[in-house]
Amino acid sequence: MEYNDVKQYLTGCPELAPLDEAAAAALFWRGQEQTFGLGDVVYAEGEKLDHTFCLLLSGWLVVEKAGNVVGEVSEHQIFGEMAYFVSPPTRSATVRVASMQAVILKFRFTEQELNSPRFSALKTYLSRQTWDRIVTTSQYLAGAESWSPV
């Protein structure tokens, strides 16, 4: 993708709106674009935290827990953040490409960097999103009728 396209996706992502301009710029320059094909695994359940999370630029991903689909990731959504906030810090689900191709931006942050004042808004957002996903997945696994994909 072109520089301006990636910048537009990043700045247009409502999930990243709380970031100030300096934090958004720092996040942008940390993004590493990666392309995956149908069936490729972006994150595998049980893997140790590699200090990354992603923004899906294009394509469609499914989220699997113990081999069962429990959600999906749509374009312009953040994913992979939960491992920062669970103990032990491991991937709680497998994220797999469900479209012919998926393009992501992968961001690498140590816990110390994520805890810094510069990224406090990002950490707050990611921790809130983690909580929402834990609740949603728990409802699905319990058979709740009100479940909707992540």
Explain what you see.
The chain is of the alpha+beta class. It has one domain (3-141): Jelly Rolls, CATH 2.60.120.10. The chain is built from four helices and eight strands. The chain has helices at residues 3-12, 21-30, 111-114, 120-141, and strands spanning 32-37, 41-43, 52-58, 61-65, 68-73, 78-79, 94-97, 101-108. The strands form two sheets. Strands 1-8-3-6 form a four-stranded antiparallel sheet, covered by helices on one side. It has a four-stranded antiparallel sheet with strand order 2-7-4-5, covered by helices on one side. 25% of the residues are buried. The model is unreliable at 144-150 (pLDDT under 50).
Blueprint of the fold:
Blueprint: H1 3-12, H2 21-30, E1 32-37, E2 41-43, E3 52-58, E4 61-65, E5 68-73, E6 78-79, E7 94-97, E8 101-108, H3 111-114, H4 120-141
Antiparallel strand pairs: 1-8, 2-7, 3-6, 3-8, 4-5, 4-7
